[in-house]
UniProtKB/TrEMBL annotation:
Organism field: Leptolyngbya iicbica LK
SUPFAM superfamilies given in the database record: Thiolase-like
Entry GO terms, CC: cytosol
Name by which UniProt lists this protein: 3-oxoacyl-[acyl-carrier-protein] synthase 2
Family from the record: Belongs to the thiolase-like superfamily. Beta-ketoacyl-ACP synthases family.
This protein's encoding gene: fabF
Length: 417
């Protein structure tokens, strides 16, 4: 397909279920206010865990979006996906019907899938025997079910898939959906990421890998990207969904447009199961490929929504990758980590950060990095510490990096006729 045949892709709907708000407006206002969603774990008794804090979604009622019977047959990660997708469709005022169902697809990534269901059913197996395990265990647990159930609940019969690329999954889903619309395989895509892994095993596993913060006495100060006193990430949960449409389709129905998606890059470090390659060469190449795909130069970038996990390894490595990819212009842009407020949603992080990136180009506002009090000497960019910033935002990058060496960068631009 030639450049002339590629369709322009725009963002017409957004949805968010997050630790700082269960809809788009509360999420966005929470980001701008520097609100932390981190607190003591309430989903289970964490007294025996070294990490006892997380960024939980509060007050979520799946029955606001689906029948109680359907909700009971979904793991929480799928409930988040269905609810947030319905939010985004309503925001886009996109109705799926017999005429367009085959042209609307779903691409929702997750890193882990139905971990809570698996843990619960293991208990049933051990205590009551194999015959008492639920017949819904497997379809509730498997990672693709967020995308599958979203299609069932919305009637979307177009392309449907589920990237499972750890913490890059949500961004891969958005990027893959972008390609499908750009190349004419769908008129619109429901896309993003979802995760619900704040469970005893989920927290224990990441804690044993020494990835999690143990700042249990100061939960809201625990996620502190680019700060020299950071001691690991804070696990979060939730979902972020974008509605991507071809520009022609969006204009034909008079849709509002938040911005345009113009680029997608992905690479692999091919280096280590959990650690980024020193110097961030894989991430830098990913950013460069995304810029090339978008047809723009580094000096056109206004803002980077960083992966910014608050881990000792990620933050200086990502900083170096941004500097390698953007050169001296890296010092002229704003960079921030919204994970300082939401925690790290693993496979869902690219979803809510894609939503944030779209809102920055729509509103010319950049969320802050909170808890950045003592900058790491190896992290020397403008991380928008403490307070949100009103500034012209023409092009935003959103970075996501996952265990296994997966790197993804998405490029969003202000929409112009």
């Amino acid at each position: 397909m030639t450049e002339l045949e590629k369709k322009r892709v725009v963002i017409t709907g957004l949805g968010a279920t997050t630790p700082i708000g269960n809809n788009l407006d509360s999420y966005w206002q929470g980001l701008l206010a520097g609100k932390s969603g981190v607190g003591p774990i309430t989903h289970f008794d964490a007294a025996k865990h070294t990490t006892q804090i997380a960024a939980e979604v509060k007050g979520f009622d799946p029955c606001e979006f689906m029948d109680r019977k359907d909700a009971k047959r979904m793991d929480r990660f799928s409930q988040f996906a269905v609810a947030t997708s319905k939010q985004a469709l309503a925001d886009a005022q996109l109705e799926i019907n017999d005429l367009n169902a085959e042209q609307v697809g779903v691409m929702i990534g997750t890193g882990i899938g139905g971990l809570k269901v698996m843990e619960d059913q293991q208990e049933v197996y051990l205590n009551r025997g194999p015959g008492r395990c639920s017949p819904f265990m497997v379809p509730m647990m498997i990672a693709n079910m967020a995308a599958g159930l979203t299609a069932i609940q919305t009637g979307a019969k177009g392309p449907n898939s589920c990237p499972v690329t750890a913490c890059a999954a949500g961004s891969n889903a958005i990027g893959d959906a972008f390609r499908l619309v750009q190349q004419g395989y769908a008129q619109a895509m429901i896309c993003g990421g979802t995760e619900a892994a704040i469970t005893p095993l989920g927290v224990a596993g990441f804690a044993s890998a020494r990835a999690l913060s143990v700042r249990n006495d100061e939960p809201q100060a625990a996620s502190r990207p680019f700060d020299r006193d950071r001691d690991g990430f804070v696990i979060g949960e939730g979902c972020g969904i974008l509605i991507l449409e071809s520009l022609d389709h969006a204009l034909s129905r008079g849709a509002k447009i938040y911005g345009e998606m113009i680029g997608y890059g992905m690479t692999c470090d091919a280096y280590h199961m959990t650690a980024p390659v020193p110097g961030g060469a894989g991430a830098a190449r990913c950013i460069q490929l995304a810029l090339k795909d978008a047809g723009i130069t580094p000096d056109q970038v206004s803002y980077v929504n960083a992966h910014g996990t608050s881990t000792p390894a990620n933050d200086p490595t990502e900083t170096q990758a941004i500097k390698t990819a953007l050169g001296e212009h890296a010092y002229n842009i704003a960079v921030s980590s919204t994970k300082s407020m939401t925690g790290h949603l693993l496979g869902g992080s690219g979803g809510i950060e894609g939503v944030a990136a779209a809102m920055t180009v729509a509103h010319d506002q950049v969320p802050p990095t909170i808890n950045l009090e003592n900058p790491d000497e190896n992290c020397d960019l403008d991380y928008v510490p403490g307070q949100a910033r009103q500034m012209p935002v023409d092009v935003t990058l959103s970075n996501s990096f996952g265990f296994g060496g997966h790197n993804v960068t998405l490029v969003f631009q202000k929409y112009r006729d």
